[in-house]
Amino acid sequence: MKFTGFTEADFDVFQVEGLEERMEALIAHLRVKLTQLGDDFVPILSELTGEEMFPHVAKHARRKTNPPQDSWVAWSKNKRGYKMYPHFQIGAWGTHAFIQFGIIYESPMKGVFAKQMIKHLKEIKATIPSHYLWYPDHMNPNGMVQSEMKNADFKNIAQRLAKQKNGEVMIGIKIPREEAVQMSADAFAAQAKTAFETMLPLYRLAFSIQ
Predict the structure, then answer these.
(1) Is 3 a domain residue?
(2) What is the mean pLDDT of the chain?
(3) Which of 4, 93, 94, 158 is deepest in the core (most CB within 10 A)?
(4) 48 domain residue, yes or no
């Protein structure tokens, strides 16, 4: 395993003022860890999904003025990118690390997942642990706790996915910064693997027509 574990410096990058300065700090610290995780989880996710998976570390290349508030590595079955496909992610904000599955607004598969999400909602709620978080906006770090969600909340997410251009959903867990920096590399990787195994049925639903 290449991943060496998170440190305070990895999260501190989001306190650096200025786009160029923050990117310099991010590249020197957090991006190193995301690249390590990207390589480490290729064989794990490829085995789980039964497909060759490829890592994509966020470059934030489109940014011209505003510095990034979070960063991540994503895995998809496409070598050229992940945004068009259901994918898995590990990343960090200044306050926490996150481990997620999701489909963002650029994916043409949103409608399929929306339909399957409602059709199999009962199974999803029984399979995905109640403390997992649902994010209808990947740019908002505050998700909805599944145990507190009503059926209407799930339906609203599905409706936005199916009908709105910017509809998206991310599902997963977050680990407070204080905990993440105390965890060994092996412990964090083990928790991420467990989370991905837990969310694998969601990934499969995104490709299902049943």
Answers:
(1) no
(2) 95
(3) 158
(4) yes
